[in-house]
Design goal:
heterodimer, A: alpha/beta, Rossmann fold, B: alpha+beta, 2 domains, 8-stranded mixed beta sheet, 4-stranded antiparallel beta sheet, 11 helices, 23% strand, globular
Chain lengths: 281, 345
């Protein structure tokens, strides 16, 4: 875990990671599998935790771990191209080496508060990345959780991350319902069309579920409002925050809001906890 | 047990300490006094009350390497920077700056421990230096610091002709045991020392900031303080230069950067400032876009957020360096007073 110095290595010192697989998910999202140079995972993590990926000489950034902890052989990161570092990451090939440090941060409470609950995942765009880790974990511990609803939306069909897994695996699993939507109608799409918050309202889930919400800030805002209208309390909704981070261990000061450090005390917050923070995220 | 040394023998004391460990003390260079490594040529300056920079960079350097990352035969190799392993002594740390180290300890020694800082703390012995004549910009007492009894591994007091020395910790005693030039004190010495302390505390009573109180600054006040319209007025002169954060004994925000070595990178960290516009900037946006927000963050962190996480300990020590060094005359005292005035309305 993030607090562990037991390897004798300072938490700021990275390990070398090898990219063993790259999948093009959408026109601007690629998924990278990362292993230790000798094979196997670099570390153990929990769903929702993050890691610092660095292309030496280019830059370093915090990314959520997209793969479930139950995956034995690698960690996967689904990364959207949107800046200098992510541009560079997208230009890498299988076999290339990067540095990785982590895991950092807290995680979704899969072993405590989420246990036994009916789960409602609400994701928009690349917001699926951190939730996929939870979905994978829940799938592998199916008996510990109730029904699973996954509401996922993106700009267009080709922008849906992990489309094959969603349609091929998740939607066929027992007790799992998948609800997909895209922003605008397009040829070859006979599914729902419209924004995530509107579809959420339309589907009208029962308010005894626990919701996990991740996506662009505007989607989170309106989806949260919709959930409140549907009778959810903020204590039933979890989301993740994202701020500039450098150290990953709550010391460099960047991601400080109120008395919390998003890198260490987050990225996962229950929405009532977010309400208690100064409005600066 | 308090020991003594005549003031003329100070150079011998420095030489004796330097036999045991690297000695850092206030040294005057180009008109400014800062902590520097002692040698027989250095111009030691114990007359200047406050060094321009606090001694924090002896434990948390302004810039330090963390590791190197090299390409070797097509493979990346990460080599961590070795931790500090030389013993050193810091002579002349004022009570406020010593409290500054307590604050840094809360940050760097809390889980997960920063091993670079921890190694320096382990190898460093701090000789605290009691203040004789606190200055106009001082307000350490507001934060519960007693400048006449500052603590540290060793405390020293300097009177007109005599240095008094008292070991407080096993580390301080170990250093003391290796010095053979300290003499015994008698009752007259004890009385003189007590009188010196009383005199220093009386000066504090008469300073301009003697009546600066922190009423209302605590965790419960977060929302009201954050939303106060006062920030909009207070921040205006701020030039965002960051001088306050660099002079501050407790500011610990840092940046992590890479230096291109030609065959890889050297990773280093260096002091950063929450006053800078790119501090929180990332590819998808910036959560503090205005200088008002950044200014507010600095003081809310020192007076509200940090105490909330650290048993009420404020992240300001009243050293007054920001009072002296801000080019726009802004400082934490103005912030505290503005809120105090508002509360009385």
């Amino acid at each position: 875990m993030s607090g562990c110095n037991c390897s004798g290595r300072d938490v700021l010192i990275p390990q070398v990671g090898v990219i063993t697989d790259i999948r093009t998910e959408t026109p601007d999202v690629k998924s990278f599998r990362v292993c230790a140079p000798g094979g196997g995972k670099l570390f153990e993590h929990m769903p929702g935790q993050c890691a610092m990926l660095c292309v030496p000489g280019v830059s370093e950034g915090m990314f959520s771990i997209t793969s479930s902890p139950t995956v034995q052989d690698y960690q996967e990161f689904s990364i959207k191209r949107c800046g200098m570092l992510t541009d560079h990451l997208h230009s890498l090939s299988v076999g290339d080496q990067i540095t990785v440090r982590g895991p950092y941060g807290n995680h979704f409470p899969v072993e405590s508060e989420l246990r036994g609950k009916d789960l409602l995942f609400v994701a928009g765009g690349i917001g699926l990345a951190p939730l996929r880790s939870v979905i994978g974990y829940v799938s592998d511990h199916r008996a510990d959780y109730g029904t699973v609803d996954i509401l996922y939306g993106s700009r267009s069909k080709e922008d849906l991350v992990k489309y094959d897994e969603i349609t091929g695996v998740w939607s066929k699993a027992d007790g799992v319902n998948v609800h997909l939507t895209i922003d605008r109608a397009e040829d070859g799409w006979d599914g729902h069309v419209g924004f995530v918050p509107a579809y959420l309202k339309e589907l009208g889930f029962s308010s005894d579920k626990t919701a996990l919400l991740c996506g662009p800030p505007i989607m989170i805002r309106f989806s949260l409002e919709t959930l409140m209208e549907m009778g959810f309390s903020k204590k039933q909704v979890y989301t993740t925050l994202e701020l500039r981070m450098k150290c990953g261990v709550g010391k460099c000061g960047r991601c400080n809001i109120g008395s919390k450090y998003v890198c260490k005390d987050g990225p996962v917050f229950r929405c009532d906890e977010i309400d208690a923070l100064p409005d600066e995220y | 047990m308090t020991q003594r040394l005549s003031r003329e023998e100070l150079p011998r004391l420095y030489a004796a300490i330097a036999q045991v460990a690297d000695l850092f003390l206030p040294v005057k260079r180009a008109g400014k006094t800062n902590f520097a490594l002692w040698n027989t040529q250095t111009e030691v300056d114990l007359d200047t009350l406050k060094t321009a920079k606090s001694p924090k960079d002896l434990f948390f350097p302004q810039c330090e390497p963390l590791y190197t990352c090299d390409w070797r035969e097509g493979n990346l190799t990460v080599t961590a920077q070795a931790l500090a392993e030389r013993d050193f002594v810091v002579f002349g740390v004022r009570g406020c700056d010593l409290r500054g180290l307590d604050v840094l300890d809360r940050v760097f020694l809390s889980d997960p421990v920063d091993s670079f800082y921890a190694a320096r703390r382990e190898h460093g012995t701090v000789i605290a230096f009691a203040c004789r004549e606190p200055e106009e910009s001082c307000f350490c007492r507001t934060f519960g610091v007693d400048c006449a009894e500052p603590g540290g591994d060793v405390t020293v007091w300097l009177t007109d002709g005599t240095l008094y020395w008292r070991a407080n910790t096993p580390k301080g005693q170990a250093l003391t045991d290796r010095l053979d030039l300290l003499g015994k004190t008698d009752d007259a010495d004890e009385q003189r020392l007590a009188a010196e302390q009383t005199a220093a505390r009386e000066i504090i009573d008469r300073l301009p900031y003697a009546n600066l109180f922190l009423d209302g600054w605590n965790g419960d006040a977060t929302e009201a303080r954050f939303a106060s319209p006062l920030w909009e007025k207070l921040y205006r002169p701020c030039l965002a230069c960051g001088a306050c954060t660099f002079a501050c004994p407790t500011c610990q925000c840092y940046d992590i950067r890479d230096y291109d070595t030609g065959n890889g990178v050297q990773r280093f960290r260096c002091w950063d400032s929450c006053m800078y516009s790119d501090f929180t900037m990332m590819a998808h946006g910036n959560n503090r876009t205005s200088q008002m927000q950044r200014f507010r963050q600095r003081f809310m962190h020192k007076l509200v957020y940090f105490p909330a996480n650290n048993d009420g300990m404020y992240s300001c020590v009243g050293c007054g360096r920001c009072v002296e060094q801000c080019p726009s005359g802004l400082n934490i005292v103005k912030v505290i007073k503005a809120f105090e005035k508002e509360a009385k309305k």
